[in-house]
Structures are given as structure tokens and as C-alpha cells.
Amino acid sequence: MGWREELRKEGFLDVGDFIIELIYVNCPCEPIPPALAIYDKKENEWYRVDEITEANNYTEACDWAIEVIERIRNGEEVKIVSLDGPAPPKVIAKLRKTLQKLLD
User: Fold this and answer.
1) What is the pLDDT of residues 71-87, one digit of tens each?
2) Parallel, antiparallel, or unpaired: how do β-strands 12-15 and 45-49 relate?
3) What stretches of the chain show up as alpha helix (H) in DSSP?
4) Taking the model in full, what pTM does it have?
5) Strand order in the sheet with 18-23
6) Please, which domain of life does this record's source organism belong to (predicted)?
7) Cα gap 7→13, rounded to integer Å
8) Residues 19, 13: contact at Cβ < 8 Å?
């Protein structure tokens, strides 16, 4: 199973020093946008992608998450933050390098 299928099935990826989790809540009363959380296992630190997207279902949320992961992997600037502010450049570089090892 490739990483895209794993993300769709499991809702998260455990890759290298990181766990990347799609957070999607299907709330019928009020739409809650999906979020992409990133846990750095080595540094014991949580980050999140600071983007808001609309998704009407889990499939659309997964499509968005896959697109964001591919953008990070390809070197595009994606805003990643922690509770303390922007993620350090070394964390983003380490994440990018880890994602580049994912097989298509």
C-alpha cells in the first residue's frame, strides 16, 4: 500500500521521525475545516499546517492533506506552526527530507 492509500485508510502516516495526522471531524451542525497535525517524535513537539480549507467529506479532506504533503515534499513554502509560532527551518527541512523518501 502506498502512502496516499495509507493516509486515506488510517488517517495518519508514521514516517521517520514524524507522525502526520489528518484531523477531520464530520460535524452535522457546524462545518469544521480539516487540519493536518505533524508530530516530531525526536523533539516531542506538535506542529500544524496553518491553512484553512473547506472539505465536505473525508475524501475531500484526504485530497487536501495529500496535496499539502506533496507541496511540502516538493519544496513549496507551506506555513507550519507550533503553539510558540512558526516551525523552525531545521524542522521543516527535516520533514521535507523525510517526505522525499516516500515512494509514490
Assistant:
1) 999 999 999 999 999 99
2) unpaired
3) 3-10, 58-73, 89-100
4) 0.92
5) 12-15, 18-23, 35-40, 45-49, 80-82, 85-86
6) Archaea
7) 6
8) yes
Judge contact between 38 and 47, C-beta under 8 A: yes
* pLDDT one-digit tens code per residue, 18-62: 999 999 988 777 778 899 999 999 999 999 999 999 888 999 999
How far apart CA 62 and CA 84 sit, in angstroms, is: 27
Task: Give the pLDDT score at 1.
Answer: 72
Taking Cα atoms as reference points, which of 5, 3, 6, 61 lies closest to residue 34? 61
Taking alpha carbons only, the member of 39, 25, 34, 74 closest to residue 54 is: 34
Residue type (1 letter), 84:
D
Q: How many residues does the chain have?
A: 104
Q: How confident is the model at residue 38, as a pLDDT? A: 98
DSSP annotation string for 8-52: HHHSEEEETTEEEEEE----SSS----EEEEEETTTTEEEEE---
Q: Domain residues of the chain, as ranges? A: 3-100
